[in-house]
Amino acid sequence: MGRSPCCDGEAGVKKGPWTPEEDKLLVDYISEKGHGSWRRLPKLAGLNRCGKSCRLRWTNYLRPDIKRGRFDDDEEKLIIHLHSILGNKWSSIATKLPGRTDNEIKNYWNTHLRKKLLGMGIDPVTHRPRTDLSLLAGLPALLAAAGSFSSGSGAGASWVENMNALRLQADAAKFQLLQGLVRALTTNTSAAAAPMAGNGGGSGVQDHLMALLGGGGNGGLAGGGFVEQQMSMLQQYDGLLSLPALTSATCNTNGAMAATMPGGQLVGGGAGMFGGSGGDSFGAGDGLSSTELGGASGSSNITAACGTTAPPPLVCNNGGSGGGGEETTPASSPMFFDGLESLNLDDHLNTDGGWKDLLEQMSWLNSTEL
DNA sequence: AACCGAAGCAACCGCCCACGA
DNA sequence: ATCGTGGGCGGTTGCTTCGGT
C-alpha cells in the first residue's frame, strides 16, 4: 500500500509553473541552510508549495551543477548504451552523465532518441532490430480501400492509385525489415563472422546471413530465429510486391485485382494478418487467408483477375568459389536481393558507422518506383 | 494573420523502498 | 514485526512553442 501523496490535505498549495520569485526563495533558502527536510522546507522558506514540488524544482532545474542545453553526440551515445544495459533506470543513467538529471534524460529519450532508434529500425526497448510490424497498420485499410474500389463504391481516385499507395507502403514496410536485417548482420558481425573464418569460401554478408540463418544459437543472434523470421517476412513481402504491374492495361476494366502470395494464397488485409508478434504470424508456409480480405469494410471484392506472380522459394548462396553454394537471389524479388547486391554489403561491414552508411544508401528502396 | 497539429519539456502523480521509532 | 515518514523513481499530463497551411 503506497503512502498518500505528500501534498494531500495541504489546501491552497500552489501547483504549476514556478515563478522567478519562487525560484529565488527556494535557491536562497537552500544556499543558506540546505534543504533539510523537504516537507518542512516550504514553510521555512516562505513558499506556498509542497515539499515534493520544491525537491523536484531544485533537483531538476535550480541545482547549480545542472548542465543545460542540447545533449552532444557523446552524451547521446552514452545514454543509448546505458539504456541498452539498464533500461528505463533514468536515475542510474543520470549518475553517468554529470550535470544531467534523470528527468531531462528521460524527456530527451522519449522525445528524441526513441524516435531516432525507431527511424533506424531499432526497437528502443530491446535495442534490437524491430520485429514488430506495427508500421503495417495501414495495410489492411489500403487493401480494404482497394476492395471498395473494385466493388465500385470508391468514386474518385482510380483504384490504380490506391494500389500504388498500397505498394509504396509495402515498400516502406519492407524497408524497415531490411533495416532490421542489416542491423542484425552488421551489429553481430563479430559473432557471425567467427564460424565462417577459414571456410575458404565467400566471407561476405551472405555468409554472415547463412551463419545466422543456420546458426540456431551458434554465433547467431541471441534471440535465435530472428533472422529466420525476418527472411520469412521478407518472403511474404516479396510475394506482396509481386503483384502484377499496376497499369490499367494489366488489369481488367472493372478494377478487380488480386494479390497472390507464394503458393497462390490471396493476400488479405484482416486484423489477423499482421497481428501477433514475429514469427507466429509469418512463419514459413503460413498462408494468408483470402477470407480476411477487406477487413473492416466487409465486402471488399478483390478477385483474381490480374494473374499471379509467385516468387520462387528463397535459397541461399554461399557466395564463393568453393562452396557449392546455393543461390540467394530469387529472380522475381529484385527489390530486395538486387538491392543487397548493388549495395555491396561487404564494403560496409567492419567499418566505422558502416551500417548507418549502408542504410542511407538503402534509402532508395523506400523511394524507388515500382 | 490566424489557425491547427506536432513536438518539446517542466511539472505532477502515484507507487515503492529505506529507515527509524 | 509493524507503522509512519521522507525521499526517490518512472510514467504521465498538460502547457508552451514551433512549424506548416
Automatic annotation (TrEMBL):
Q: Which Gene Ontology MF annotations are present?
A: DNA binding
InterPro entries reported in the protein's UniProt record: Homeodomain-like_sf, Myb_dom, Myb_TF_plants, SANT/Myb
Cross-referenced SMART domains: SANT
Localization of this protein: Nucleus
Q: Name one GO cellular component term.
A: nucleus
Q: Where is the HTH myb-type domain?
A: 10-62, 63-117
Where primarily located?
A: nucleus
Keywords (alphabetical) are: DNA-binding, Nucleus, Repeat, Transcription, Transcription regulation
Myb-like domain spans which residues?
A: 10-62, 63-113
Q: Which SUPFAM superfamilies match?
A: Homeodomain-like
PROSITE patterns of this UniProt entry? HTH_MYB (PS51294), MYB_LIKE (PS50090)
Please give the name of this protein. Answer: Uncharacterized protein
Gene (UniProt) = LOC100833140
